[in-house]
Amino acid sequence: MDLVTIVIGVALVEYVFFAMMVGKARVQSGIKAPATTGNDVFERHYRVQMNTLELLVAFIPGMVMFARAYGSEIAAGLGIVFIIGRFIYYKSYVADPDKRSMGFGLSFLPTVILVIGGIIGAVMNMVNSPM
């Protein structure tokens, strides 16, 4: 599980980086808290952070569930794809929101695989366990 813990930790560091970029964009744009609108570049950074937060809610437990069922290596590999996908999402969304699809897919698909795979694995373990 150490590998899964490391990948989750890197995903969280990436999220903190996105949050820092929101703060930087807030200062550069002059958007005062608590406002979240008024400057297109700031809003793009903000949406990347919020969209990542929304996905982390499924990604993190999904990684743990999947790792318990199928092993840390596969779960960590899917997690690395997620992290790369989120970075591509960040770069493309900030540059041009219409170009965010590849980054979204590379982070959403692993999350779905982790969650559904984790559920299936748990059900299979339960069914195959002696009562």
Commentary on this structure:
By secondary structure, this protein is mostly helical. The chain has a single domain, classed as Four Helix Bundle (Hemerythrin (Met), subunit A), CATH 1.20.120.550. It contains four helices and no strands. The longest helix is centred in the middle third of the chain and has 31 residues, at 40-70. The relative contact order is 0.15.
Question: Tell me, what is the CATH class?
Answer: Mainly Alpha
Shape: elongated
CATH superfamily: Membrane associated eicosanoid/glutathione metabolism-like domain
- Total strands: 0
Structural class: mainly alpha
**Low-pLDDT residue spans:** none
Order of helices and strands: HHHH
In round numbers, the mean pLDDT is 96
| Distance, first to last CA | 27 Å
Give the CATH architecture: Up-down Bundle
Q: How big is the Rg? A: 17 Å
The proportion of strand residues reads under 5%
Features:
elongated; 4 helices; 131 residues; Four Helix Bundle (Hemerythrin (Met), subunit A); mainly alpha
Short account of what is shown:
This protein is mainly alpha-helical. The protein has a single domain, classed as Four Helix Bundle (Hemerythrin (Met), subunit A). The chain has 4 helices and no strands.
